Amino acid sequence: MEGHTKMLFILGLVAIASISEIYRVEGAGECGKNTTPDNEAIKLVPCASAAQDENASVSQSCCAQVKKFGQNPACLCAVLLSNTAKMSGVDPKVAITIPKRCNFANRPIGYKCGPYTLP
Q1: Which residues form the signal peptide (predicted)?
Q2: Which residues contact 103 (CB under 8 A, 6 or more apart)?
Q3: Helices (H), 23-59
Q4: DSSP string across 53-116
Q5: pTM of the model
Q6: What is the dihedral sign for C-alpha 8, 11, 13, 16?
Q7: pLDDT tens digits for 6-33?
């Protein structure tokens, strides 16, 4: 069942990112000039389970991807709150706990992420 859920998650991310690319507006956003939070959300596929269930273990590949986004908290928040993430079943309240669950020492503690605060 978990393999099936992960495959649906991946297919959903690809479909949503493809659609969002059609409506992409040129300009520098939270994640830089040449990308969008929806496109960046695809990189968080290894975090599928961890972003939906706070009791799920967080894989090393997930932590590696989140660490890259952690260099830019605005991008991390935009990715976690993106349409791609929402439509893929990501629970923002759970997803924002991933940096803490990865035990990052230099995570953006207290950073306001929409209506949520990074722990």
Answers
A1: 1-27
A2: none
A3: 37-41
A4: -TTSPPPHHHHHHHHHHHTSHHHHHHHHTSHHHHHTT--HHHHTTHHHHTT-TT--TT-EETTE
A5: 0.72
A6: negative
A7: 665 665 555 555 554 544 444 468 888 8
**In contact, 86 and 20? CB cutoff 8 Å:** no
Q: Which two tokens stand for residue 80?
A: 């976690």
Instruction: Please return the burial class of 74, using the count of CB atoms within 10 Å of its CB with bins 0-12, 13-18 and 19+.
Output: middle
- The residue with tokens 């495959």 is 7
Tokens at 32, concatenated: 């830089």
Q: 32 pairs with which residues across the strands? A: 29
Sign of torsion over alpha carbons 32, 35, 37, 41: negative
